[in-house]
Specification:
Keywords: Signal
Number of domains: 1
Helix content: under 10%
Protein name: Septum formation inhibitor Maf
Order of helices and strands: EEHEEEEEEEEEEHEHEEEEE
Strand content: over 45%
Shape: globular
Distance between the termini: 46 Å
Number of strands: 18
Radius of gyration: 19 Å
Amino acid sequence: MTFRLPPFPTLSAARRPATALLTLLWLTATVVAAEVPATDHQTFSDYWYGGKAELNRYKLEQARYGQIHQGDSVLIFVTEDFLKKEQVKRDRGKAPADTVLKLNAMHHFNTGIYTYSLMTSSFTTVDYRNPFTHKVAFTGQDWCGHTFMQLNQRDEKYRVQVRSYFQGEGDKDFALPTSALLEDRVWTQIRIAPASLPTGRANMVPSLQFSRLRHVPAKAQPVDLSLEKVREAAFGTNELYRYRIDYPELKRTVEIYFQTKAPYRIEGWRDTRTSGFGSDAKPLTTTAIRTHTVQEPYWRLNRVSDLPRRESLGLTP
């Protein structure tokens, strides 16, 4: 049996393709409307509560400065206990805690002589009807300097901190409503309960990584959201779900491709936006394609003798 959750109060009715089968010319993909099954609690528990993290490596082609740069992305998913008041992982004691699915998303690429290292951590409650993200943190390092941004849920608001070496950004503190959808929530929401993904017209806060790389304020933007089944040659021969986020005012589109069965592994993504500055600015697409996945208790594998295990992820020792 399959079902769709009722639309969120802030969303318009979900829009679906008028035909059962469409051809997307630029993607060379077939598309049909998606009906996502409810998350099976036992299947989720068997996969995520086994004492290991899921480690995924992706071949990354990153748009930056008007060109495409080669790199690696690693997405690390793991469940843990989270203290909502302190906004930290519970690593001792018995204080009441929420079970969250944590994602550490890391992206590494070179632009000419120097290196970018980007990381976003998100903490989302394991709720099969409406997963909620309590905290998101982003850090970015390159040879020019580093930036930091964090959202923490406090009552009915996200408290936002920005720390940057750029004059136009500097140090800022402000708030966003917790009613706003977060792009950074989508990745864990897919893994917990893809049937809860909102569709239709809404407002969404773009990813913290996007806000910092494009040097734009973090605020809710109008979006069109859709969830469909596709066959896309770039991501293999199997049918996949594609979650599409369209930001018309930002001229940006994000597409996340994931498997149609639990544990809903993410096969890759595309992020199309303006890249470059001035007369060199043009639309380019960042693409990531999954190449390796393993389950490991990585926090224990920190000895020199564990270096060869990196090869199982397609990474150099």
